[in-house]
Design goal:
alpha/beta, 6 strands, 49% helix, globular, hydrolase activity, HAD_sf, S-2-haloacid_dehalogenase
Length: 212
């Protein structure tokens, strides 16, 4: 294993602030939107469908732009990172592993992540690359930046449809992280168990995998 590539939402970063801010913007209780995110997750739908349930016919890109213009747009700081992120990424780099962050996020999220100065060799988002998971093009970009063959590249994520399954299809090794609604709900799915090389509870477990 030469390169570890990390998903972003609910792998490195908590989604609490993201969904809470959307609920506040749409004028709905945070618990309501959170429950709807869980409902669409259970149905295997994209999480943006929860916003459409709260406000049918919503133009999500337009609302996103309106939030930014109102000064209520995307924001990330150190408190949004899970506690195991910095020590794990730093330890992997100390072991000689190339560390990348690449997930389905906006260009703004990429900017915010880079300001956090994570112990990573590259931080990139789908909007910056012009392609998104689960497309083969996205994972081709991952491998192009990896600097290692597919079987020496490990993709770590919580979402089966966006992370574990398409990364495995692209030939990468995969880690399914039991974290967040997708990670917990689908961790025991037969397809995940078949395709994931490892299923872990914490990023701390990754260093043991490398040191085996």
């Amino acid at each position: 294993m030469k390169t570890f590539v990390f998903d972003i939402g609910e792998t490195l970063v908590r989604d609490d602030r993201y969904w809470g801010s959307w609920a506040d913007w749409l004028g709905t209780p945070r618990h309501t939107l959170s429950a709807l995110v869980g409902a669409v997750t259970a149905q295997g739908l994209d999480n943006s469908e929860a916003l459409k349930l709260v406000r049918p016919g919503i133009d999500i890109p337009a609302e996103y732009a309106a939030r930014e213009a109102a000064g209520r747009g995307e924001y990330l700081d150190e408190s949004d990172l899970y506690e195991d992120v910095r020590p794990t990424l730093a330890r992997l780099r100390a072991l000689g592993i190339r560390v990348m962050v690449a997930g389905n996020q906006t260009a703004r999220a990429g900017e915010l992540l880079r300001t956090l100065d994570l112990p990573a060799d590259l931080v990139a988002t789908s909007e910056e690359w012009g392609c998104a998971k689960p497309s083969a093009e996205f994972f081709a970009r991952v491998l192009g930046a990896s600097g290692a063959p597919a079987r020496d590249t490990v993709y770590v994520g919580d979402h089966p449809a966006n992370d574990t399954l398409p990364a495995a299809e692209a030939g990468l090794r995969t880690v399914h992280l039991r974290r967040g609604p997708w990670g917990h709900l689908w961790a025991n799915d037969p397809r995940v168990r078949e395709k994931a090389d490892w299923v872990v509870e914490s990023l701390h477990e990754l260093t043991a995998i490398v040191e085996e």
